[in-house]
Amino acid sequence: MRRKRSERPKQDIIIEVNVKKLTRFLILLVMTALMILGGIRVVKSFMKVKYFEVTGISVYDHTEIVSASGIKRGDLLYALREEETEKRILSECPYLESVEVTPKFPNRLVIRVEGRSAQWYLELAGTKYALDGDFVVMEETLTTEGLTKLILPEVTSAMVGQVPVFGQSETEIKKTAEVLSVIRQTTFKSRLTAVNLASRWDIQLEVDGAFQILMGDMTDFEAKLKAVEAILAQDALAGYTSGQIVITKGTGGYTGAFSGT
User: Fold this and answer.
1) DSSP string spanning 213-226?
2) Distance between CA 114 and CA 98 in Å, rounded?
3) 124 vs 129: CA distance, rounded Å
4) Model pTM?
5) Cβ of 157: how many Cβ atoms within 10 Å?
6) Within its chain, how far is the Cα of 159 from the centroid?
7) Alpha-carbon distance 244 to 250, whole Å?
8) Of these four, 12, 21, 58, 130, which has the most CB atoms within 10 Å of its CB?
C-alpha cells in the first residue's frame, strides 16, 4: 500500500500596514496634486491668444470668422467666455448653422463652424430675402439663382435669424407650416422653382421654372404630392417647354392631368 503524503499545515500570511506612514503619504500625494493643478491654473491665467484655428465648411473665410469673434491676438486665452463668443459669431455670420469655440493650451483658439445654405427666398416690399432649409431668414439678397421662390400669405415681417411673420390667424400659420413640412420631403424638391401658398385653398407649385402645378386646397396634400411625383417620374414633361398639371381626385385616388406646349 502507498502511504499518503502528509499534508503541510497552511500558514497565514500577515501583512503589517503602518497607518501613520500611509496617511502621511496620501496627504502628501493629494497636496502635490493640488499644487500641480494650482500651478496649471496660474500658468493658464497668463496664457494669451497667439493663433486662431478655424475648421469646418462655410461661405466665410478665416479672417471673417475671427473678426466676428471679437477676439484679438494678445487677449487672455482662458479668460474668454466661449458661449458669448459663439453667440457673437452667429450674430455676425447669418450663414452659419453652429459654432463651437474651444481654447487649446498653450495659446491657440479653435473655432469650429458649420455652415448653412440658402434654399428659399421671398419678396417683401420690393426686397428679396434668402431663407435656409428651415425657412429662417438669412439676409437680404439680390441673387436668387438656385433658390425656390416662396409665397406666403400676408407676410408682414422678415427679420434676419427669424422665420418670416405671416398669416392672419393661428390656423392659417399652422396649416401653412404643415404643408411646407410635407413639401420639404418630396423627391422633386430640387426641381421646385416656386411654391405659392398665398391661399391655402389654391396652392400652386412650379417645376423647372416652366411647369405650373395646380394642387387645389390642403386636403390630402401628401397624397397629391405623390401624384405629382408619379408624373415627374414617368418623364411626362419630356419634349415640352411649358405646361400645366392639374391634380384631381378620382375613384382610384389622386391623379394629374397634364397639358403642355
Assistant:
1) EEEESSTTHHHHHH
2) 5
3) 8
4) 0.68
5) 11
6) 19
7) 18
8) 130
The one-character DSSP state at 160 is: T
CA–CA gap between residue 41 and residue 34 (Å, rounded): 10
Phi, psi (rounded to 5 degrees) for 126: 85, 0
Contact 140, 128 (CB under 8 A): yes
For the beta carbon of residue 183, count every other beta carbon within 10 angstroms. Answer: 21
Please provide the distance, in angstroms rounded to a whole number, between the alpha carbons at the two ends of the chain. Answer: 115
Amino acid at 251: T
**Which residues neighbour 24 within 8 Å (Cβ) at sequence distance 6 or greater?**
none
Higher pLDDT, 70 or 29: 70
What are the strands of the beta sheet with 108-115, ordered from one edge?
51-55, 108-115, 96-104
User: 228 pLDDT exceeds 70?
Assistant: yes
Q: How, if at all, do strands 203-207 and 192-196 pair? A: antiparallel
Q: What percent of the chain shows pLDDT beyond 90?
A: 57
State residue 129's pLDDT score.
95
Would you say 96 and 89 are in contact if contact means Cβ atoms under 8 Å apart? yes
How far CA 181 is from CA of 135, 184, 191, 209, 252, in Å, comes to 10, 5, 17, 22, 26
148, amino acid identity: T
- CA–CA dist 145, 195 (Å, integer): 15
